[in-house]
Write a sequence for this structure.
């Protein structure tokens, strides 16, 4: 009850941020720091370890199921900023006492392939990574017959966060970071063990980084991998909440459809080898939209692709991927600067945009 009193009765917060896990902090920390210079901020999280110890930031853990429901249903705030899709489509309902629900992204990928078709229907404002997302979201509105949102190309905040991190020379590791998916034919469950085993057999040093969803959906596979490889001195099972260290250590990233590839290419300029396993499509109208997802565009332009049947020859593909990236670095930088808005100025643009609604 003390928690609910704090939220509903003791103080009004103009800005509220919601986080599902601590690993999402880097995507929004700079904006929170900017906002908290002038306003008190309420930071809600489902993760007990997810706290922001900054002046003017109040941290509240709302992991209890009932508390979470009540907070979402009755919270009063002007700006509620989230990176959670499908708001109001499930058990987490909107509050009538929120003026603006604002969505920002924790991935650089497109909006219309790996997310459900109604993922953004119930937001008032979307801070888009670039013009390409605005085109996708407008098309989704047309197909869904959903309300027209305010959408602005403010940029991808995580790129600005990454740009401030000192670059390090790699340590000759290969980072294997498969995506998660609803399909039982997903890359990790079907090919993960074989890929890691082959990489180690070929004298590679491997970092294996599961997606957080794998810990819920692929427990048996993770246990098998851990039990078989954790004693190998050339194998690291990365459970860090942040992916930066693993990308920095690696000379190359291997994935199937994970958005980590987009962050490996920029700003780290790491080559990416893609496993052509079952495609990851979570939107049942994706094929009808006729818009190429940016993750697929990057895959075709800058990636090297391998089919599962060729895994025995994976070292040849690794060499090809490294060589291709060496000649593509300037093209990668140019592509990202054209596609993603306001690189190195995203937080300032986002803050200015939000404050236009403070009337």
């Amino acid at each position: 009850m003390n928690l609910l009193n704090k939220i509903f009765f003791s103080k009004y917060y103009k800005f509220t941020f919601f986080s599902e896990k601590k690993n999402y902090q880097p995507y929004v920390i700079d904006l929170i720091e900017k906002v908290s210079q002038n306003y008190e901020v309420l930071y809600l999280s489902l993760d007990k370890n997810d706290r922001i110890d900054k002046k003017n930031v109040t941290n509240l853990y709302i992991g209890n199921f009932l508390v979470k429901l009540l907070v979402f249903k009755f919270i009063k705030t002007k700006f509620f900023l989230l990176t959670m899709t499908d708001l109001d489509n499930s058990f987490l309902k909107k509050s009538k006492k929120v003026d603006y629900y604002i969505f920002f992204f924790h991935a650089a990928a497109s909006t219309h392939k790996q997310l459900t078709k109604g993922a953004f229907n119930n937001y008032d404002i979307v801070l888009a990574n670039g013009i390409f997302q605005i085109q996708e979201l407008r098309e989704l509105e047309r197909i869904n017959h959903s309300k027209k949102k305010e959408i602005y190309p403010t940029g991808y905040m995580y790129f600005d966060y990454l740009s401030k991190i000192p670059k390090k020379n790699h340590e000759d590791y290969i980072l294997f970071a498969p995506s998660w998916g609803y399909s039982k034919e997903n890359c990790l469950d079907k090919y993960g063990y074989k890929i890691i085993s082959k990489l180690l057999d070929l004298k590679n040093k491997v970092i294996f980084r599961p997606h957080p969803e794998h810990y819920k959906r692929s427990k048996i596979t993770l246990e098998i991998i851990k039990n078989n490889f954790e004693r190998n001195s050339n194998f690291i099972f990365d459970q860090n909440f942040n992916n930066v260290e693993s990308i920095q250590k690696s000379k190359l990233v291997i994935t199937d459809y994970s958005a980590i590839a987009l962050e490996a290419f920029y700003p780290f300029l790491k080559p990416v080898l893609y496993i052509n396993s079952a495609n990851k499509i979570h939107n049942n109208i994706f094929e009808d939209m006729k818009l190429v997802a940016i993750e697929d565009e990057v895959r075709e332009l800058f990636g090297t692709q391998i089919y599962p049947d060729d895994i025995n020859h994976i070292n040849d593909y690794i060499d090809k991927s490294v060589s291709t990236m060496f000649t593509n670095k300037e093209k990668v930088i140019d592509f990202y600067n054209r596609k993603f808005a306001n690189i190195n100025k995203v937080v300032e643009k986002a803050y200015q945009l939000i404050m236009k609604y403070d009337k």
Remarks:
- DSSP finds 14 helices and 13 strands in the chain.
- The radius of gyration is 21 Å.
